Amino acid sequence: MSDDHQEKKSLLLFQLGPVQSFIAQAETVGDLAVGSAILSEVTAEAIRVVPSYKTNLVFPSPEGNEELYGIPNRFLVFVPKGEGEEIAEACEEAARRALVNAATESYERYNRDHPGKVNNPVQFLAQINQFLQITWAVLETPTGNMGKDYKAIGKLMAMRRNTREFEQWQEEAYGQQKDILSGKEVAILDGRGAMNLIKRFKAEQEAERFKIPESLKPNKDKKGIYLAVIAMDGDRMGEKLSNFKNIDEHRNFSEKLGAFARSVSKDIPADGLLIYAGGDDVLAVVKGDSAIEVAKKLRKRFKDDVGNTASAGIAIGHSSVPLQDLVHAAHDAESRAKKTYGRNALAISIYKRSGEILEWGCKWGSKALDLYGELSTLSALNKEKQINIGRFPYKLAALLQPYALNGELDEQMQAIVMAEYDHAVEQTKDMRDEHKRERLTRKNVVAYLKECCKDTEEVSAKPEDFLNLFMMETFINRPREGEDD
User: Fold this and answer.
1) pTM, rounded to two decimals
2) Residue 440's pLDDT is what?
3) Per-residue pLDDT tens over the stretch 319-346
4) I need a surface site. Which of 16, 114, 273, 409 has the fewest CB within 10 A?
5) Average pLDDT across the chain, whole number
6) For the sheet containing 133-139, what is the strand order?
């Protein structure tokens, strides 16, 4: 877009929600996938209202994704000067209409397939019409410096979000059951309001499209099945976008994000499922014992494709744990990776059936991940009964329990911890091979302990992470044969 042409344009930033809370309202992995798809499709319909959107879109890029499949819930686009408000209102109308049409179609189809089971169209549509929360802002006169313009329209959007009118949820609910997942709408059928019913309807009606691996479906005959939700997000993305000088730089970056989103599925194993990959955000569900390796691949792909660092959060829990709790926990872990571990990091929360929550994290370049790989190899050999390392992490935990593993530990205290580690190795039959060589690389153990015990500019000392790595790995990879944790 030439500067002369750009002078005749305004910038429109448009966003719809709720996103994370709506997607997380899920009892099954299928609910997650459908919720994400609904919001993406509604956003796409809003974009199509914009005049010449394919040439005027700044983010997301339509390059290679002309059908706007799987896009995020916000877009930045040039519009004719003086028409920004009118176009934004048209986008909002298109989004609301698209949601009503999709909901009505699923509702009517469900009624045809299940006569008499649900018949409350007035209440159903009333809930649908109130659902979307849409915010937009228009920068009437862009400067041509995309970094400055991005900051300026971001401030306008923040002001709009902070001062917009909030309408009360218009529904008489006294004495009636609320939606068991959202806690807001009156339940229409099976404890669900309209929006969560759409998820169920579409998952059933479009089963081929939302094909869920058997390994991720609840199965009461199986015990010890653990799922992992992975949430990944680019680091300092707003800062990066604010540094671009011109439209070409911004669009080029949008194209990289789009290419990344389209390629993410290559890193999801066949027994996992990609929920969404929009912009720099990724949400996926995989089996618990593959979560860390999948997260490592996603982070590498983001770095290679986009040229930026990313942080990931993983929440692991038994299939009996409410799925929406795991989704929220994964996002919380992602936030912990950024705040506690200084970005470019990984954080994990494990929800045990006993009620205990085990937390751990590290930078992507940490020795911890090398150590985790070695521990996983030992666990695999242990499962196959090629070696017997018994309950090594629990022996280590018992030996370290008398010490207060918190705060910065000096070298003398680190030497004591390593002496206890060596003692645990000596007590465990196959922690050394037939030539008496240690199966865990001791220098990696020492390096990780030092890493955990020292403050840096980005990360405070967390010596408890040293032991938690062993406890986390053994929980994820140990054989379960029907055990009840």
Assistant:
1) 0.94
2) 94
3) 888 999 999 999 999 999 999 999 999 9
4) 114
5) 92
6) 57-59, 74-80, 9-17, 133-139
Q: Which two tokens stand for residue 352?
A: 């045990």
What residues does each domain of the chain span?
Answer: 3-212, 225-365, 367-485
Q: pLDDT, tens digit, for every residue of 424-457? A: 999 998 999 888 899 999 999 999 999 999 899 8
**Whole-number Å distance between alpha carbons of 412 and 403:** 13
Does the domain formed by 3-212 have CATH 3.30.70.2220?
Answer: yes
Whether 103 and 202 have beta carbons less than 8 Å apart is answered as: no
- Distance from C-alpha of 146 to C-alpha of 238, rounded to nearest angstrom: 12
Angle between helices 194-205 and 29-48 (to 10 degrees): 100
Q: What integer pLDDT is reported at residue 104 of this predicted model?
A: 96
Q: Which 3 state secondary structure label does DSSP give 349?
A: strand
CA 324 to chain centroid: 12
Strands 310-318 and 345-351, by their bridges, are parallel
Q: Which residue has the tokens 């996002």?
A: 331
- Contacts of residue 468, defined as CB under 8 A and 6 or more positions apart, other chains included, come to 358, 359, 360
Q: What is the pLDDT of residue 118?
A: 85
pLDDT at 462: 94
CB 399 within 8 A of CB 420: yes
Q: Do domains 3-212 and 225-365 have the same CATH topology?
A: yes
The C-alpha atoms of residue 357 and residue 398 are separated, in whole angstroms, by: 19
- Phi and psi (nearest 5°) for 316? -120, 130
Q: Go through 221-251 and write b for each residue having 16 or more CB atoms within 10 A of its CB, e for each that does not.
A: eeebbbbbbbbbbbbebeebbbebeebeebb
Structure-model confidence comparison of residues 210 and 218, the more confident one: 210
What is the side-by-side order of every strand in the sheet holding 273-278?
273-278, 281-287, 226-234, 310-318, 345-351, 357-363
What whole-number distance in Å separates Cα of residue 444 and Cα of residue 367? 6
User: What does the DSSP 8-state code read for residue 250?
Assistant: H
Question: How many Å apart are CA 481 and CA 437, to the nearest integer?
Answer: 31
Span 290-301, average pLDDT = 97
**Is 3.30.70.270 the CATH classification of the domain at 225-365?**
yes
Euclidean distance between CA atoms 14 and 43, whole angstroms? 9
- Does the pLDDT of residue 147 top 50, yes or no? yes
Q: 467 CB contacts (<8 Å, ≥6 apart)?
A: 396, 397, 400, 405
Question: What's the pLDDT tens digit per position in 106-144?
Answer: 999 999 999 888 888 999 999 999 999 999 999 999 999
The alpha helices in 275-344, defined as continuous H runs, are: 291-306, 323-339
Beta bridge partner(s), residue 357: 351
